[in-house]
Amino acid sequence: MTLGAITGTQHTQPPTVATGASKQPAAKTTSAAHAQDTVKLSSAAQAKLSTIQAAVQETAETPAQTAKEAQSGDLQARKLLSKEEAAARAAKGA
User: Fold this and answer.
1) Does 83 map to a domain?
2) Rounded Cα–Cα distance for residues 83 and 89 (Å)
3) Which residue has the higher pLDDT, 3 or 89?
4) Among 3, 7, 16, 76, which is most buried by a count of CB atoms within 10 Å?
5) Which structural domain range is residue 73 located in?
6) Rounded distance between C-alpha atoms, residue 63 and residue 77, angstroms
7) Residues with Cβ < 8 Å from 61, sequence gap 6 or more?
8) Total-model pTM
9) 54 near 76, Cβ under 8 Å?
10) What confidence score (pLDDT) does residue 33 get?
11) 47-76, pLDDT tens digit by residue?
12) What are phi and psi of 16, to 5 degrees?
């Protein structure tokens, strides 16, 4: 009698039995899942972020709100209005 190789089987690990000494409290595993990292930005990075946030806020404003801010001395609003006026003049000339 000849024996052939058995195919189509998977090797599995037997389940491990945890002993009382190796168990960890559930509170430690759940708190690890909710851990957060903290990032500290340099002053230069904070200044750049503030500039970007201000620019995003300016683009979300209505034209009337931008004009009002430009009249009250907002340099960024004035710059945006001048760009819009230049674009409008270029569109009429083209």
Assistant:
1) yes
2) 10
3) 89
4) 76
5) 63-94
6) 10
7) 69
8) 0.40
9) yes
10) 66
11) 999 999 988 887 788 889 988 999 999 998
12) -95, 145
CB neighbours (10 Å) of residue 63? Answer: 10
**56 in a domain, yes or no?**
no
Q: What is the pLDDT of residue 59?
A: 78
Amino acid at 14: P
In sequence order, the 6+-apart residues with CB closer than 8 A to the CB of 77 are 58, 66, 67, 69, 70
Token pair for residue 10? 């998977």
Average pLDDT over residues 67-92: 91
Establish if 39 belongs to a structural domain: no
Count of structural domains within the chain: 1
- Chain position carrying tokens 């599995």: 12
Q: Which residues contact 63 (CB under 8 A, 6 or more apart)?
A: 84
- What digits encode the pLDDT tens for the residues 3-41? 666 666 565 666 565 555 555 555 555 566 678 889 898
Is residue 29 included in any domain, yes or no? no
Using an 8 Å Cβ cutoff, are 62 and 40 in contact? Answer: no
